[in-house]
Amino acid sequence: MTRIEIPTPHGPAMAELHCAADGEAVLMLGHGAGGGIEAKDLVAATRAGQAAGVHVALVEQPYRVAGRRAPAPAKQLDTAWLAVAEELCDRFDDLPMVFGGRSSGARVACRTAAAGQAVAVLCLAFPEHPPGRPEKSRQAELDAVEVPTLVVQGETDPFGCPKPGPHHEVVVVRGTHALDADLEAVYRTVHEWLAKVLRPLT
């Protein structure tokens, strides 16, 4: 594991790199609004990525690197994410990039997939709507993604469950928004999906 600091227009971000022996792609994973890269589902997805022959970069947004707890505005999150993606693309010799993350990080991955030329998107605990506010749906962010997308969602997630679409599948596992009740299911689902979507590219 290697930690590197990456400059962005909104301050330095941090990427924790977990490299595979013969990596054929790079999976970038972002954290939730109030949590960090140590979240258990992100750790499970990291293990799954490495096992599938993928380099994994756990990305810490600049506001967390700076010690702030309140998340930055969406545009700042997206801009910082794309700056990190550009740096990692150069570092890994233009390998295919998969964008991903949990909760807020999943939303960032969806919003930036086209601009960052991601080949696929992984969403862990996509926050379909604020708790108790189903009318505030964020389904459009997911529907806008035009590359293969996997959503892994807890069956009792108070943030709701997005609907599947032409480019994205939704897998429901035991647990809540934390996705920590069945980490083996998270691992297995991510591993199988990565192997499937990356096979045509390698």
From TrEMBL:
Database matches in SUPFAM superfamilies: alpha/beta-Hydrolases
Domain named KANL3/Tex30 alpha/beta hydrolase-like: residues: 24-161
InterPro entries recorded: AB_hydrolase_fold, KANL3/Tex30_Abhydrolase, NSL3/Tex30
Signal peptide: none
PANTHER family given in the database record: TESTIS DEVELOPMENT PROTEIN PRTD (PTHR13136), TESTIS-EXPRESSED PROTEIN 30 (PTHR13136:SF11)
Name of the protein in its database record: KANL3/Tex30 alpha/beta hydrolase-like domain-containing protein
Organism: Amycolatopsis thermoflava
